[in-house]
Design brief:
By secondary structure, the protein is α+β, with helices and mostly antiparallel strands. It is 32% helix and 26% strand. The chain is globular. The mean pLDDT is 94.
């Protein structure tokens, strides 16, 4: 089953965590071979495009809204097959997007101007994960000399 949108229960659970300070959203993204604009025909390009291209269009639309909300992309990398996990699992793109707070994240995610382009994301993705992260320092995992 693909996961493209949060459930109401997941949103409530995020709020109940009572996170303070910055939150980094880890995005794991798997693209469709061909973008599917059937739910957003108003955004569909004249010619078919790949899921990766549809996501590029989503990113281009989204970045100004993200920056205006105080957010930033702090990491972006090409993915691929997993090293530990199911043999058939892959993530094409991994992003870490930091917001000043969970409230700022929700303000960004519910901004009508941002939502005008969300159909590019839906068209692009076969599956995704969005994991809220909060820094805890080194936790004793750094090397010492």
């Amino acid at each position: 089953m693909p996961y493209l949108e949060p459930t109401e229960a997941n949103a409530v659970a995020l709020v109940r965590r009572n996170l303070t300070g910055p939150v980094t959203m880890l995005n794991l993204l798997r693209f469709r071979e061909a973008a599917d604009y059937s739910n957003h025909p108003d955004l569909a390009p004249a010619e078919p495009v790949s899921g990766a291209e549809a996501y590029r269009r989503y990113s281009e639309h989204t970045l100004p809204h993200l920056l205006a909300s105080g957010g930033e992309v702090v990491f972006q990398a090409e993915g691929g097959p997993v090293f530990i996990g199911p043999d058939d699992e892959r993530w094409d793109l991994v992003l870490a997007v930091r917001q000043r707070s969970v409230d700022d994240f929700f303000a960004f995610a519910t901004n009508p101007a941002y939502l005008d382009g969300i159909g590019h994301r839906t068209a692009a993705l076969e599956d995704s994960r969005l994991i809220p992260l909060v820094e805890i320092g080194d936790g004793g995992l750094t090397s010492t000399s």
